[in-house]
Each structure stands twice: as C-alpha cells, then as structure tokens.
Amino acid sequence: MTTVKFGTTVTLPSDTEIAMSRSFDAPASLVWKAFTTPELLRRWLLGPDGWDMPICEVDLRVGGQWRYGWAQPDGSGAFEMHGEYTEVTPHSRIVNTEIFEDNPPAVSTVEFVEVDGQTTMTTTMRLVSQEARDAVLATGMADGAGRSYERLGEVLATL
C-alpha cells in the first residue's frame, strides 16, 4: 500500500510498520531544529486543522523523555503521547519509544537525509503486531501526519 496524504507518502514496509516520508526545501539542520524545538513543534505538529498543542516537552538526549498533548481550542478532546529517546544523532536520526493511551508501545525512527539542500524526512513506526498497525492506521493518523508535515513545510519557509 502506498498513499499520498497532503504531499506525504505513506507506505507499509512490513506487517508491523507504517512509514511516512516527505521532502522539504531546507537543509537537514533546519528540519531537525523544527522537529526538536518545542516552540517550533507547537506551530506544525497539530494533526488536522483546528487543534492546539498545550503540552510540548522535549529532553533530547538518550534516556531523555518527551511528552506531547493536543486539544481543541476549548480544551475538549484532549489526548497525550509520551516516550523516551533511545538514539539521538543530530541532524540525521532520532529513535524513540511512543506510548499513546492504553496502546502497546511503538518505536519510531525519524531519519533526515539531505541532498543538494533538500531534506527528506522519513518517520517509521514499528508496532507490536499487524493488528496494532492497522488500528493505528484506522485512526486517521496518516491524514493528521500529512497535514502536520504540510504545515512543517510552511514553517520551514519562514525560518
């Protein structure tokens, strides 16, 4: 399966993985900064339009924790995710655990590959089973991630 959501390519590399890839007209160091700086994350990592990100905590180091929380502007629909960084290679790669509500933990790997000033960012989520992968896809997360990555491109253009 390959689909494109808001310019982001979504594939299923294995029975337990979801990969999302998008290229940006920016160097890897800038995409990395936008991906790891709370003030910038709050501008683009919002999923569908109309959401806010009142919680954005990043302790970017191996063993460091991260925590994100979203809500509608009136505070309704709030939800959170959190995890721990297990690999941090500046401007190149981040690996972290991801825990969302009562779901089994996932492992996310984000790679930043720059060629001629363009950076392709690929996020691969590895889940515990095909059923867990399919349940994540059924939430509409590919649409939300696609819109977020589209917004990331807009933010990068202002930096």
UniProtKB/TrEMBL annotation:
<dbReference type="Pfam" id="PF08327">
    <property type="entry name" value="AHSA1"/>
</dbReference>
<dbReference type="InterPro" id="IPR023393">
    <property type="entry name" value="START-like_dom_sf"/>
</dbReference>
<dbReference type="InterPro" id="IPR013538">
    <property type="entry name" value="ASHA1/2-like_C"/>
</dbReference>
<feature type="domain" description="Activator of Hsp90 ATPase homologue 1/2-like C-terminal">
    <location>
        <begin position="25"/>
        <end position="156"/>
    </location>
</feature>
<comment type="similarity">
    <text>Belongs to the AHA1 family.</text>
</comment>
<protein>
    <submittedName>
        <fullName>SRPBCC family protein</fullName>
    </submittedName>
</protein>
